[in-house]
Each structure stands twice: as structure tokens, then as C-alpha cells.
Fold these 2 entries.
Entry 1:
Amino acid sequence: MDPELIGDCVHCGFCLPTCPTYVLWGEEMDSPRGRIHLMGQHVGGTPLTPEMAGHFDACLGCMACVTACPSGVRYDRLIEQTRAEVERAHRRPLQERALRALVFRLFPYPRRLRAMRLPLRLTEGARRRLAPRLERISPSLAAMAELAPPVPARVRLPRRVRAVGRRRATVGMLTGCVQGAFFPQVNAATARVLAMEGCEVVIPPAQGCCGALSLHSGLPEQAVRLAERTLATFERAGVDTVVVNAAGCGSTMKEYGDLLGEDRAQNIRVVDLSEYLAEIGPVATRHPLPVTVAYHDACHLAHAQGIRAQPRALLSAVPGLRLVEIAESSICCGSAGTYNLLQPEAARDLGDRKAERVLATGADLLVSANPGCTLQIGSAVRRRGAGPIPVAHVAQVLDASLRGLDRAW
Amino acid sequence: MPDTALDEPVRRFLEILGPGSVITDPVRLRTYECDGLTHHRTSPGVVVLPETAEQVAAIVRVCARHGVPFVARGAGTGLSGGALPRTDGVLVVTSRMRRILSIDLPNRLAVVEPGVTNLAITEAVREQGYYYAPDPSSQQVCSIGGNVAENSGGAHCLKYGFTVNHVLALEIVTPDGDLVELSHTDPGYDLLGAFVGSEGTLGITTKVTVRLTRAPQAVTTLLAAFDDVESGGRAVSAIIGGGILPAAIEMMDALAIEAAEAAVACSYPEGAGAVLIVELDGPSPEVAHQFAEVRRICEENGAFELRVAADPAERAAVWKGRKSAFAAVGRISPAYIVQDGVVPRTALPEVLADIERISGEHGIRVANVFHAGDGNLHPLVLFDDDEPGAAERAELVSGRILDLCVEHGGSITGEHGVGIDKSRYMTKMFSEDDLATMQLVRCAFDPEGLSNPGKVFPTPRLCGEAPGVRRGAHPLVESGQAEQF
């Protein structure tokens, strides 16, 4: 934990109301300012107590505080360093260790995740019936059972998708872990939209995890290994721009320079799908979609990448589409990577808060640009018994509009 | 150091609040060691997080019974150390009391709990065309309870007045633990007026009835760039002297602009030695007329660029630089002191020149951000805390700025309060008799001196104790005008 970065905090408190855990609990120790104070205490020689570790673990890593901070405190860097320190210096109870081992041996591995698809599909009904009983054994396992989506048919993506009309660019596309396993239709839509907008899309098979989950969970060595492999994959594919449709992955890949060194990372430019589409401008015809859409800001898009306007502009440009705002849009939904598995109670409270505000918009469709948020809000809406509100990715809405479909979600 | 005198009170707090709302772990306690003013730090003896007024009253009764001092804290954004805790005391944090209890638009008022943020009130009524007028720069964070304690101001207080002008009633817990209502309609002494701005020394606010203000029909915000603060200052005097009362007139000097640029890229005119933000609001024809006047005055006083914010987004962009200025200074300096003083508006150019001179003498940079319309200065005294002696020199410069304010007939604080930080300067403004009289007011509410002791007054004193060096009875007591408790 870098004392200089800690020293940047002037204790003004502007971060407090943007912090999801402060919003929930109203305690200094569970605010960014309080956590930075705890980091300072530890750097100053206070041993890392289980209480301290608990407050660090409770941070979602949503980066809303980074957006809010007028002093430019790099809380993102600080919490990453702190999580690594927690993994080094803090011995977790057995049950917690087992759960974390399960999560980190499953999620960053697309093939293992895909292997889960069949059992998940076969047990869909049983899972939901089982969830309340699991709650007593482990709230985390219950959360996992509740979150897992209905598994769609597998979509096989070609290695290369030709541009429709004149080719304007050639880009690589990240398929992601959770996105690839549980939302293959989003990847298919992304590839089609890019192609219809004049991009040749290169999709290297056997892509690995980008390293986001590990990096955000205090496992930098695993993150470096995965990042290195991801970079190599796209370099071999011969692209210099990689389009990412999952917010968490995009934000991590944009920081490969910090992780692997600027020299190593400079050959590949990483862009979010919305960012890229806004940048190249539209060429394909948009067909009307008469639908009211509530757009959800994924933290790793809005806060970590500063991308708020582009997805809204893309959606608003669809004829007939009405865009509505969700109250408290900058507060995290509680998904936050693996947070909803590791901190299920807080995640559930935040999910409920978000679901309530999403439903209050009266929208017919929720659009989210991150698979984790989609799962989290979807399950929170189901829990309220109010839904289900369909949830789609920006790519799917654009895909439907470009192809003149009624809907594609 | 665990204070055994707190053992019994802590047991009682656990009964009243439950374990989730009583903090005794030393590592956690330390996160509460300071508010927005970080150079005074004290770890509290215990922190309690009540959720209802009744719980606050019960907590204070326990304190009163055991003679334990207590300090109230909202969001911990204060800049005078008003919420600095005590190791032998209880820190009562209202951050979980954040419900908006009722909104009554026909009567233009809202009843809120003390932990509600200033901006949350506005957000709750904005769509209906209302807002809560006082707007401290920390409005999205700071709590209304803290605003009441400090009588907080903000940029728009020039026209609309301070917190005291917008609080219609309070429910407070007195230092002996009674829940009492104070209202602006109460006949007799204006106890509500006495309580607002009492910096936590008269009790703890548990409910606030605020006035809601109708959003103006038209708002125009003008950004004017000048070569130097003197010409900006002359423009301010000319505007007010011309009979125009803008909603706000704010000035930032070159260093403050540099910080704001670094923090929020506010894109103020390049090369400006000072910028003025003038906001006019009211009925459209009036605003249009005044706008033409302000524009003329700025140009006459040497403004080299004028920008008009045409819509709410542009207005927000203009204000963003100003509102983030304090914390933004963190971008250009490792450490800084936010000073708060008042001078007569007409003395602005002279005082600013003096500040520059003092800054040069001590080799300490001073960035100036201020509510120019009412002469409320916020010099930001910049220093490097790693450089030996720098903090002391900064403290010296900061103190000399306050001397300047007093010498020019101003005040040692405009809106940040006295707290712990400025209690020692109180004697520069007030005589022993003045302070003794204030102490009598304090004693009427808090005879045991348990409510935020050690703040505001330069020397802590128990009620009944002979104040100062004076021997014999207090003159007010002697003349039969007052009675000592």
C-alpha cells in the first residue's frame, strides 16, 4: 500500500454519499475515506486485524469514489494493493477460504464455466427450490444458485466475421468468461453490430480470462499471467484494437500498461463497444424499436472508464426508443465481479435497492453493459416477484434495430 | 486507551442501540479521529450510531448521568474541527438518521432527520420546482444537522441568507437528555436563532424543519475573466454598489483556477489572473436587465473574456470548478489549510494585496477562493508537510490572515465556524466580557459543560467559575441583569 497515494486523501468526505456500503450502513469504516484511513493505520504499523480486513473485503471496488474525488485519489490502485496485502497477511476462516478457492478456480476459466452449463441447465428448477435451504448452509452458495441464469443454447462464433459493405476497420473481439458462457447471444450480437457498421471482426478461439477477477481480488500474480496470455492471443490474431463488451474486462484491459508495463501493453488498444461505435459513427440504417429503455450504468464502465454518454447516445439514436434514467444511477447494483458471491448479504441489499429503482422507471427493458450486473439485477427483480423485466446488452438492442427485428432479447 | 469511566455508559449504549451501533474497537474508532480538518486528531472513547431521536435522547441521558462529555458528528466534513471527538467522551454520529420525514409543498417546508445531506433535500423537491437554498460547497456530502450546528453558508447566501434563515423549527436533545422543540413561531426569546450556529455546544439536533424555496423563473450565470484580483474586486464592489443583488458572486485567483483545472478540467479562460462567477436569478425580465448591467460593469472594470452559461449543463460546468476548489487544491499541494475569514467588501483589494505580501514574506503560497459578494474569504494556505517547519509557517500565515480580517473590521469566520481550530482567535475579536456573556448563554443550556466541550471558547470553563482574570462578580450579575448558574 503506497503511503503517497494514501497521503493524497485530504479527508474532505466527497466520496461518502457515492459509496454503496456507506449508503447501506452509514459507518465511516465502510466508506472510502474510512478505508483509506484504515490503510494508513496499517502502513503506520497497526497490524491487519480481522475487523480491518472485513472493511476492505466489504468494498465493492465500484470506483464511484474515484469519480467523486476532487483530489484525484487513486482509490482503485489503493484497494488493489490492499486486497493483495489482505491475501498475504490475513488468514481467512476455512469456509471462506474454500469458497474463494472455488470461485477463483472456476470463473476465470471459460472452459470450466462452460462445463457448468449442462448441469445448470438440467437442475434449473431444482436449483431455485434448493436456494432457500442452501441459505442456511452458505449464503454464498445460495447466491450462486439464485444468480445463475437460464442457460441459453451455445452459440459458436466464427473466427472471423466479414464487414458488411465497405470495410472501415479490423478489430479483435473479447468473448469474456461469464459473457461467453452465459450470454453467448450478446457476443453474437456484438459481432453482428460491428460487422454491420463496417468492421471486420476477428474472434480468436480459445480466449482465456482477461485477469479482471483476479486483479480485483488481490491475486496479482494470477492476473499478470492471464493478462499476458490475453495480450498474446490478440497479438497472434494480428489486430491492434480489441473491442470489449463487458465493462469489468474492458476496465482491466485498459490498465494492462500498469500491470505488465507500458511497453508490453502498447501494441493493443482496448475500447469498449459503445465507446468504439460512438467513435467510428454510424453507417448502418437504424430501424424503429418502440420500446422504453432504462439504461443501467455498470460501475466499471461509468466510473472506471468514464463511459456514460456513449451508450445513452447510441440507444437514443434508435428511432422510437425512449430512454429513461434510473434514480441513483451511480450507485453499484451489488454485483461487482465476485462480490455477490463473497459478500451475499450486502450484495442482496444493494440489488434490492437497484431493483426498486429500476422498476420505478416503468421501462419495458433494462439495458446493462455488463454480464455481472445483468445477472445481479435480474435476480433481484425476480426476488421482488415483480418481474421479470427483460435485460439486454446495448449490443442486442442495436442488433435488433440494425436488423429490423421486433426484439432480440 | 480504554477509559474505564466509559465502561458503564458503553453497557447502557449496547442496551439502547444493540451491538451493531456501538463502536469500541480501537482500529475502527480511529477512523473517526477527525472531521474535514485533519490537523487536530483525537480518537473517540466510543462511537454510537443512533437511528432515532429517542435513541439520541437516551444516549445523552446516560452521558448526563455519568458526567461523560459528548460530541455530535454528521458527515464529518466540517473545516473547523467542530466534530473533533474526545478520548474520554462519546461521539454521537447521525449518519444513520437520514430519512426525509415529510414534504409539505403548499407550506413550502420539509421535515428531515439530521443525517440527511443538504443536497438530498433539494433532490427530493427539484422536480416540483423547489430547492433548499443554502449551498455549502460540500452540499452533496454535508449533513443538515451539521449545517444547523455551523449555520452553514454557501455561494448563494449573498442573496438568500444562511442556514438560520432557512430553518423553521428544530427538535433538539438538550444536554440533560430532553427532547425539545424550538420553532420560529415561539414567542419570547429566539432560542431557535441561538441554537443555529451554536456548534454543538447547546445540544444535538434530531429533526430539522427547513424552508423550501421556489426555483427562480430564470437563472443566468456569467463567468468573467480578469487580469488580476484587484480589477475583479472592483467589479464586485461596482455590482453591489449599483444596487444589484446577484444570487452569488464568487471569485477565484490564478492559483485556485490552476487547482480546479487540474481536478475537474473546468476550462476557465486561459491566462486569467482572476475569474468572477456572477449568478443572477429571479423573474426573467429582471434577470435580463441586471445581466446587461453586470456585463457592462465587468467590461468597464477590465474583464477580457465573458462567458454566459446558457443551460443547466453549462452552468454546472462553471460551478464545478468553484465547488471542487478546496479539495482540488490537493492536486497542486501536498497539504493545505482552508482559512475562512470575512472583510468588508470594500476592503477586498487591500486585504488581498496584504495576503499576497504575507505569502511572499513566508514563502508560503496562498490560493484565494471567495464569496466576493459578502466579503467572505477562503484563502487556501499551501504547504508541504514533509518539509520541516513548513506546517508552522503555514499556520503562521493562516493566523496573520485572520489578524488582517479583524484589523479591517471583519470576522475570524464567515461560515466554517470556530470549532477547535479558531477558539484561540476568539480573544482577537471579543473582550473578556463578551466571552463571559456568551458563556452565560452556554450555561443556560448546558450547565455541566458536557455538550461539545472545548470548542468555540478559548479557555474551557465550568459554569459558575469566575471567568477570566476578573475577580469578584460578573458585571452583569452585579448589576442584577444576570444570574450565575
Note: The first strand of chain A starts at residue 160 and ends at 161.
Entry 2:
Amino acid sequence: MKEFKILAVVVFFTLVTYYLVEPFAHSQMHAHVESEGFSYDDLPALEKKGDAAKGQELVMGAGGCIGCHSIEKAGFPAAMTPVDNSAAYGVNPPDLSDAGGIYSPKFLAALIKNPAHALKVEHKFTPESGKMHPMVAFYGAGGDIDQEVADMVAYLQSIAPKPDQITPAQAFETACGRCHAVKYEDWTQIGEMPKFKKKRDELVFLTQLEDYKANLMNYMGKLPPDLSMYIRSRGEHYLSTFIENPQNLLHGTAMPRVGVSAEGAEKVIEYLEDAGDPKRAERDSVGVKVMIFLLVFAAAAYLWKKEIWKDLH
Amino acid sequence: MAHFTKATSVHDWLDQRLAVDTLQRVLSKEYWIPKNINFLWAMGMVLAFTFGILLVSGIFLLMYYQPNVDLAFDSVNYTIMREVDFGWLWRHVHAVAASVVFLIIYIHMLTGIYYGSYKKGREIIWISGMLLFVAFSAEAFSGYMLPWGQMSYWAGMVITNLFSLGSLEFNGLVEWIRGDYVPGQAFLDRFFMLHVLLIPLAILGLIGLHFGALRIPHVNNQDGEEFDFEEEAAKYKAGDKKSSKVIAFANDFLAKDMFVVSIYLIFFFYLVFWHFGFAMDPINFDPADGLKTPPHIYPEWYFLWSYEILRPFPKDPGLIAFGFAQVIFFLLPFLDRSPNAVPASRRGLFFFWFWAMVIDLIVLTAMGKLPPQGIYSTIGLYAAWVFIGLWVALPFITKMEKRV
């Protein structure tokens, strides 16, 4: 029994040390932000029920969306290359085919009416700065603006896949992938890195990518980081709350609040897990097998010890 | 030349050439260990096992690791973690073992201190053990450089800066160590060499010395009892195993060790699969960037106590205190003036000294990680003074100790 007492002392001091240098120290070093469940409480609720058919007319017409955005699903491919788009707007405007399935409807409505406010980048586009957010606010097409906005959101939802059919890659590429590269998934800001047969093709692509990155850097202030290992360097909780509102964790950052829905955020996190921690399922299954082996090993070691020591006591 | 006869078996053939029977007798069957021991006596075997795990996993990692500032990070995080089958397993095993080995080293050291196993002929065991601690520290630090993440880079910057020796401003020495003005390719290459060759060689040599140093004074026992090993061994060999105070290394001691090792491995692999975060700092998953200093730079947990002895003081006194912390444990056998080599519980004031030291080391460890602000830096400063004070007091309180 003396051995158990000694073990208890060793375990106690080990756990105290662990608690102090890990959970406690990290709670003191990093501000803890709780998720609001992607409800975007600061934005007004979407009260009107939208009509997708009327929304389509607005999106294609008076709303002016397709002046800058492509909607491939509706037969509007991008008019300009990502590089030209980034030269014009700073960043390539997203294709709207999947937007209704990835972003929160409430956020989309607020974005259409006042982009800088919904994106939480008003600190960057102040009157003194002389800069304007590249997306122009929608001031109404003559009717009830709230109804018109609801119609447009309804249209975007009607053409988008249902949230549960969106793949992690779709969610990531639409919501994050125009600013962030993910090298380990072959993702660049201008799309997936193709496999090149000719060196020249590769150089052309890389030149376009460099041009895009230069425009992006100019727009954002610095080049947004590659997110390949972010699931390990930041962790799921940090990433999730950061995506929900970057200003909470990095005050003054140029990164906009992207406005994904809770499901959209889960998809984005899953994509980052696949990039930075793709062996997590294998880890669990191998772990269980190793544990079973070790339990058998420990039982055998115990029996051997008893056998040997019965002559010694 | 020795006389060789026609061998009657493979065993006989080997025995004539290598004296395998004699070796087995001297190294295991008649290598005597006291019977009166507890599981803490198995920490040596646990350490040997952990070192073996580090060596094997390190060999596998070495096959894919690229010591190049442009490739190192991706060779670890992409090639090893994603592309190579079970590369992630070897890396997690290596990282967790590198951290856990220090937990076991600290338990092993504190066991030695508590039971007085550094006195009466056991001084070289203690000193070789401390040399191993230093070698393992260097091995851990050099290994930490290799993934070339943010913490690798900035820890490398901070630690090599210490060699400028404060106001002496030996900047040339720092540049010589780095091979550059800042950590770069030359720096990574030399730490790679240290990590995979020179320091492991030193560790292997020191392990030999550490084991060798045990043979003459023998292993201590849990009551500090002195007895005649020859006499007790004779009793054992005569068949009176029950009343003999010794056991054979193999299989008596080994059987107990292996049981402790098996329990340890359950704990170890639990950490490897489900709780590895403590051994793999998140910040080191950001690639090294010499233009972006992380907001908090701290060493791995096992260096925190000595880091905290450096940190709360101004530059020069801090370095002196740090140097003091690095060497003082070596001097333990000579600073302890008491003739008693018995457990601390029977040594009066030393018992309190021991637990005060344990608690102070834990406080220093905790404060070493916390941001050096407000109450934490005050506690850290006091704890550093307590550490120094305890060592200054040691010769006096042990001198006063009554002989037991």
C-alpha cells in the first residue's frame, strides 16, 4: 500500500504542474471568446418573406449584382479573370451560385444594404481614409427596400445547394479561398493549383498568382496567411470564433466578418481539419488497437512479476 | 592465444569466443539489487525504454526530414504528417516522448534526492546523471529547432542570445554559435547535426558511465540500510531467496521493472493518441518568420523553472542566477554535509528542504510560462529567491542534522 501512496504523491504533483502550465497558463495568455452560434445578433432580423422570382429580377437587373459577381449556375460566368478582378476591386468578388447555402440569410440581407457594416470593416473605410468599400450598397429599386432585399436573398437560396449538400471545399473556397491559400490542399487564391505538363504553363499560372497576391496585399495591407496548418496552430475553438467575428480576437484586423452560417462554419473547419490534421480518424483507430495490446501486455507483465516474486517474499 | 575446442553447440561456440555465460552472470543473473525498493526504482528502466522509443522514432523521422530552411517545415507537417504512412504516429511518439522523458527524469532525480542516493560512494552516479540531464536538455533544444516553426526560430534566437553573456556583449560568440547574424540555414544545419549525431553519441556514452557508476556502490534501497552485498548474495545463491536482502537483476528486478514499464506505456500511448497537445506547442505550427515575433515566447515546460530564475532579474544578475541554477544540482553531494544517507523523512530539516524545493520548482515552472506581469512576476521573483536561498541554506541545515 505504501507504493500506492507514493504513486498518489507523484500523480498529484504531476497533475498540479500540468494544470498550471497548460490549461491555467493558456487561460491567462489568451482572451477567451464564446461563440454566439453564428446568430449575428448585432444585425437586424430578416422579417419579410422573400419571393425568389422577384429576387431573380432584382439580382439580374436593378440590384446590379451581376455587374461584378458571376453566377455560373444561372448562366453568368465571370466576365474577367481573377487577376483583373483583383486589380479592379482589390479582391476577386465571389461567384454567387452557392452563396445562399453557405452564408447566413440575415447576414446576406445586411450585406446587400451596407457591406462595410455587415463585414465589420467600417474602421478601414472611414470618410477620412478616402476609401470606399468596393461593393456598392443597394439603396432600393423603388419599392420597399426590406422586401427587395428579402427577395434577392430568397433567390440566392433557391439556386444554392441545400446547406447539408455543400462540401467542405465549396464552403472554404467561397468563404475564405479568395484571400487565403491552403498549400497542403493545392489551393491558391485563384483556384486549385493545376498539374502542369509544361514548365511554361506553370510559370504563366504562377505569374498570375503573384499578380493576384500583389493586388490582394495592396487591398488588405498584408498578404493573408496560408491556412494549411491553422487547425493545429489555432485550434478549432479559436478558428470558429474568429470566423464568427475576427474583430473579437484580432481587434482592427482588415479581415472581414464573412458571415457564414453555423453549418457553413462547420464545413470550413472540416476543410481545415482535412488540410492540417487529415489522419485524425486513423489516429483514433490505431490508438484503440495499441491500447488493447498494451492492456494484454500489462496483464502478462503482472503475471510474470507475480510468478518470479513468489519465491522472493 | 586461448585454446579453442570443437564446439558442442552454438551456445558453446559463442561462449568460447565471447564468454557469453560470464557476461550474463556478471551483467544480469548475479548483478545484485536490493529487495527493499518501490516502483520509483523502475524509473531507470522507464527512462531507458523512453530513450529507445526516441531513438527508433527518430530514425524513422530522419528518413523524411529535410534540414533546409525552405523545406523543413513542410517536410515535417506535410511529408511526414500527411504523405508517409504512419509518419504522423512516429512524429507524435517522438514529440510526446521528448516531453515525457523529462517528467521521468525529474521523478528519477527527486527520488535520488529524497532517498539520499547521491552520497557515500554514489556521487559519480549523481554527477553522471546530471550530465545526462544536461545532454538531454541540449538534445531537446536542438530537436525543437528542427520543425522550423515560429517557436523553433524564436526560442533559437532567445537561447543563443544568452551566450552574449549580458553586458559582456560577446556578440561574436553568438554569431559563431549561430553561424550567422540570425538563425538561418547554417544554424539549422548545425543543430540538426547536434541532434542526430553528436548529442546522441554523448548520451550513449553517459548512459554507459551512469550504469558503470552503479556497480561498485550498488543501488540504494528505500530505507538507506547498509548491508553486505556479498553475504546477502551468498544467501540468495544458497537458495534462501526469501530472507536474502538482494534480488538478481534478471529476472527478479526485471520482472518488476517490466510491470512498471507496461503501466507507463499505457499512460504514454494515451498521451500520444489523445492528449499530445502539451508536447506540441500550437505556435510551432506556424512557419518560422523572422519578421513576426510571437506575443508570448516560452520554452517547453521542462525548461520553465530555470527560465523563471533568469527572467525576473535585471539582465546581468539574471544570467548569474541562471548559471547558478544550471550548475547547482551538480554540487548536491558536496553541499549536503550530513553523513546520513537515509530517506528525507528521517532527516529532520532536510525533509522540509526537500518539499520546499519541490513546491518551489513547481511554482517557478508555472510562473515561467505565465506572462511576466503583475502578480505573476512578483511570485516568480520570490520563488527565484527561495530557490537560491534553499541552496545557500542546504550546507547549514545538513551540518546541524543529527546522525541517525
Note: Residues 288-313 of chain A form one domain.
